[in-house]
Design brief:
The complex is a heterotrimer of chains A (515), B (310) and C (291). By secondary structure, chain A is of the alpha/beta class. Helices cover 48% and strands 12% of the residues of chain A. In chain A, the strands form four sheets. Chain A has a five-stranded mixed β-sheet with strand order 2-1-3-10-4. In chain A, helix 3 (74-89) packs antiparallel against helix 17 (368-376) and helix 16 (354-366) packs across helix 17. Mean pLDDT of chain A is 83; it is low at 1-55. With 310 residues, chain B is mostly helical. Chain B has one domain: Orthogonal Bundle (MetI-like fold), CATH 1.10.3720. Chain B is flat. In chain B, 47% of the residues are buried. Chain C is an all-alpha fold. Chain C folds into two domains: 1-54, no CATH class; 62-290, MetI-like fold, CATH 1.10.3720. Chain C has helices at residues 2-34, 38-44, 56-62, 66-97, 104-116, 121-130, 138-142, 151-163, 166-174, 179-187, 192-208, 211-216, 225-242, 255-276, 284-290. In chain C, helix 1 (2-34) runs antiparallel to helix 14 (255-276), helix 4 (66-97) packs across helix 8 (151-163) and helix 4 runs antiparallel to helix 11. Chain C is globular. Classes of the chains: A alpha/beta (515), B mainly alpha (310), C mainly alpha (291). The interface between B and C is large, with 95 and 104 residues.
Amino acid sequence: MKRKICSLLLCVAMAVGLLAGCGDGNGDSAGDISGDNDNQESGNDSDSADDKTDSEEIITINMCTFGWGNVSDYKLVQDAINEISREEIGVEVNLTMLDVSQWVEQQSLLMSGSEPIDLLYSSGSIATGVSQGTWMELDDLYEEYGQGIAQELDQEFLEASRINGHIYGIPCQGEFANARTIAYRKDIVEELGLDVSNVKTLDDWVPIMEAVKEAYPDMDGFATNSGSSQAQWLGYNWDSLTDNFGVLMDYGAEATVVNVYETEEYENLVRTMRAWYEAGYVAKDTATETESINSLLGAGRVFSTIGTGKPGDEEESTNGAGVPIGHIDLTEALSVTTNITGEMWGITSWSEEPEAAMKFLNLMYSNEEVATLLNYGIEGVHYSVQEDGSFNYLEGQDITSCTYHPQILMFWPNSFIGGFWDGDDPNCPEETKVFNEEARKSIALGFSYDNANVINEVAACQNVVQQYQIALDAGAVDVDTVLPEFRQALKDAGIDKIIAEKQSQLDDWMAQKGE
Amino acid sequence: MTYRKRKKKTYQIKKYIPFYLMMMPALIYLFINNYMPMPGLVLAFKQYNVREGIFGSPWVGLRNFEFLFTTNDAWVITRNTILYNLAFMVFGTVCAIGAAIILNDIISKRAKKAYQTIILLPYMISIVAVAFLVNAFLATDEGFINNYIMEPLGFEPISFYMEKKYWPFLLVFLNLWKNVGYNCIFYLANLGGIDPGYYEAAALDGATRWQRFSRITLPFLNPTIITMTILAVGRIFYSDFGLFYQVPMQSGTLFPVTQTIDTYVFYGLMGGGSMGASAAAGFYQSLVGFVLVLATNIIVNKVSKENAMF
Amino acid sequence: MVENRKGYNILIHAIMVILCVLCLAPFVLLISASLTSENSLLADGYFFWPREFSTEAYEYLMSGDSIFKAYGVTILVTAIGTALCLLVTTMIAYPLSLPHIPGKRAISFLVFFTMLFSGGLVPSYMMWTQIFHIKNTLAALILPSLLTNGFTIMMMRSYFQINIPGEVLESARIDGAKEWYILFKVVLPMSLPILATVGVMSGITYWNSWNNNLYYVTDPNLNTIQGLMNRMLNNAQYLKQLAVADSANMSAPTASVRMAVVVLGTVPILCVYPFFQRYFVKGMTIGAVKG
């Protein structure tokens, strides 16, 4: 018996030895990266890098993003961009475009510092990456090389994207506010001669659905969650402060963080949904639907859903579903921090060529030709220009056969300056700028919250929300029994602690802002 | 040590050199692929920061593990994970052996090939597609069961994705369905190794079918069963993520019976969880498995030494 | 006794037929869905035969050469990977199956340990890409999952232990055979069933593997069939998930395309599988020893 223990110990010792041995090897390699990452070092580099450009040396930077559509020709596009950028700023780009699913999976790798990447698109709130050390502070670089961006981007929103007072990313040009809408089949409303002009609330929508149900008994009046398995009321007329665990009600009018799930507003919403569900407007399995909302609308299985309101929303939805879609605003447009920090471009903290990366980012933001190339590819290869100036597929090509059509306008730095597609509203950029200005601004616009101190509570609450909220939002469960359970489960999971933490961070931020 | 003994020892080592050479490629590979990244385990105890790298990041003790235990669901997710795994282990082994024996007993070669290929089919279908297929059967409005069985018979349709009681059976059934064809391959190989002479002799002695199974077949399969079981024990805190995440369509109402450690970690860290926290979850799962395996191995060592893993 | 045998035969065939129906029915559903037009699928749901026949899904997938390239890459990777895996696995499993090798237990433990603990994705990725530079090479599709874990080693070891009698090896050694000769000329011919098993397992693993493609390959010329297919399925899911945030004009692979994807990924290896089954033949090993 003693011998057995000895041999076991030996095994463990060997294993440990192996670990320690390779620990060194791996440590070196990791050290290499982190050494290069050192911010100060790159700061020192900046002068010498300047000299380099003066002597006309071409610097290559690596950039990575993804495409929804077909992007098999992205290397051609890259070469075309390099023709321009070499001239203009002495920088070439090595572009990588991934599929969306590969992008999602690789994001943790890309952001962990294991890849030589300089310029990276950031989806979701950039704050997570900032606390992990992924992003470089851009304040100085922006001062020096960001003039093009400064001209294009409304400074109010750049300011709002700051985290702890620093710029870590440049927001993608686009709408920085959203309204909640009902998205519906416009053609059916017209066909049945229904009047939707007086619809202002969810309750006003009931007679419309009733009429549609009579004419089309097989069509569901309403699909919750836009057919996705996310919670539906992640934001309505409140500022969700990133994650809905503690929100600012009434368009973020006051800086008091409250538990949205305890409010009357939320209860009314789920009660309405429950009434719709019981009246048969909503499909029984709506919470576990397998098809995307565009397919459902297009195939005539669903008449309406919750949508997102912004300039050009009807054109966009119509393009997506393949049938005429209308939007009716349920709320006013509201601008909150995540509208801005949700889609950004940043430079990695381990970038070896931050100046070149910033110059290139600036070029993408301000150069029409480059923006057009990114948006739609090369003229005559990936699109043709029509008489009215809009772009369309080449003869005989469509969305699947076109070899560059990434369909990620809102994820490029600046899609406003890069042409417009057939059917899109050419005035959309101008309208969006007005929309952004006029949207209601949450009092906490510019406040980014860091959940590091309450990460355990957040994890528990996320699970509670998954368990209850989707079914409640869909009306699939009895509100009287499930809502109290849901509220209690959130309390047990520690939502109050999250709210207190958020409140104190918000108070600090308000105080700093006031100074 | 006397000269002779030393000489004998060198002779012995020499004798073993070819064996060590044979083992080299695999050991080098395992060292590179499995042991070199192993220091990454320290991430479980660190707050990862890109600038500092894995080793420079600050230590945080056991903080990364907290989210697994402070929750009220800790008990539920642990119970689900263990119970499902036990069920998969027991039923999976029984079904796989049963299928292997039946396949082995089928005389027609063509039928055998056809059966064997067809029962492997489910293993090859991606779990995402399985989720769609299951949905095609279970959906309330247009699923097969409700449309073609419940409705014609005059029953109320069942909302499968809202009813907890069906899922423990469904999930076990799906796991068996998906894996039986694959798992029985192991046992088939071992059955192929049994000398038919044993059976002939046993039949002559008038042994019943059961006796032949328990006295001849089972002892031959024992090492495989033990190996597979020890491995399964080692993974008892892990769950088949696809099965528990995709197939129930993330229906929250089913969480009390579908939530496992893996899905809990996934949902919990969705909102920008740290690398440390997911590393911690993996470490915890491995550690429990490791302890259980050591214990199992000690028992196996006592009962039948030659079947022990190490 | 004879009647009993007949009854047993009917019973086992009946069981297998039921099992096969259970396994086949969903697959028929899948094939049918892949051959149904998209709108009919959305409006009428899935059914066991296409209500509105259409080969659109396959035309969509077959347009361009990416899928054929992917088949080529996958076949190459599966062949090389399986061969390498078999060689390396046999070479370590054989010594471990022998009774008196010094350090055997420690080595078994080291092998076993890899089945339980892993350093995690990010450290593995850093190592393979920064030390071995395998990103966007064929090696990236083969190496990271060569032994996957020690599982196959353990399987083969226990097979050798039971099925290769010590006397056979002893007599070969007395005849003056070298260990390498014994392994390749004596042991392996007696082990066709386990070689076939491990080969089939490894082959299936390589064929089905998409992780390596996902993490280590961004060059579209090196896509594997399952990598490609898996991404399509997942793209559709992400599109669905994100629909609430941005109801933009994104084209998700349609339901019938998703089903066709599964069919195209599954069918080829199922066609090959029966050819390997003849190695699972009854009584082969002992017969070989006696002869």
